[in-house]
């Protein structure tokens, strides 16, 4: 047997298990998803899940870490202040990562409070708090907090669970969703201007 077959099949199995886990976590919730369900969805034995990840928590971490890293990287680019309109570029980066990492973002945004004891969720929460501060500023109003929550949480929900509200044939593709989110999210995130009294 060639030596490169086994490592490649291990990497493929690990990736397939992560993908199946994200689908299950986003659809049913982390707590309601068993390792057996993940194994069945990926077409592997439960022992394969444990071989590759050791626990459901380790699998969750491996599955959502790329999304957390993407949020952190977008923030670092924004904080570096490069580009002509850093805020607009940050919003574009966030829309793009919402599309690319929709299930992972859904898991740590929507289910995060119930998983707050897990280190990867605490890291994701910190990244989202930093994102909020970057987009809304330190003295944000209640309206700005609501706008941020609706923009981010609403998009995360739309891209995962919200897809079930539309007939399969009428579902927009990622390019259409990206274009719409690029137009709508900046409007939602526009700071509230209060009239001077």
* Structure summary, number of beta strands: 0
CATH-derived topology:
Tetracycline Repressor, domain 2
Q: What structural class results from the helix and strand content?
A: mainly alpha
CATH superfamily grouping: Tetracycline Repressor, domain 2
Q: What share of residues is helical?
A: over 70%
CATH architecture: Orthogonal Bundle
How many domains, as an integer? 1
- The average pLDDT value, as a whole number, equals 85
Order of helices and strands: HHHHHHHHH
How large is the radius of gyration? 19 Å
> What is the first-to-last residue Cα distance?
80 Å
The unreliable regions are 1-5
Number of helices: 9
Shape: globular
Describe the sheet with the most strands.
Answer: none
| Range of strand content | under 5%
Supply the CATH class. Answer: Mainly Alpha
InterPro entries: Homeodomain-like_sf (IPR009057), HTH-type_TetR-like_transc_reg (IPR050109), HTH_TetR (IPR001647)
Pfam family, one: TetR_N
Domain HTH tetR-type: 11-71
Protein name: HTH tetR-type domain-containing protein
Describe the protein in words:
- The protein is an all-alpha fold.
- The chain has a single domain, classed as Tetracycline Repressor, domain 2 (Orthogonal Bundle).
- It contains nine helices and no strands.
- It has helices at 5-28, 35-42, 46-53, 56-80, 86-100, 102-110, 119-136, 142-159, 174-189.
- The radius of gyration is 19 Å and the shape is globular.
- The termini are far apart.
- Residues 1-5 have low confidence and may be disordered.
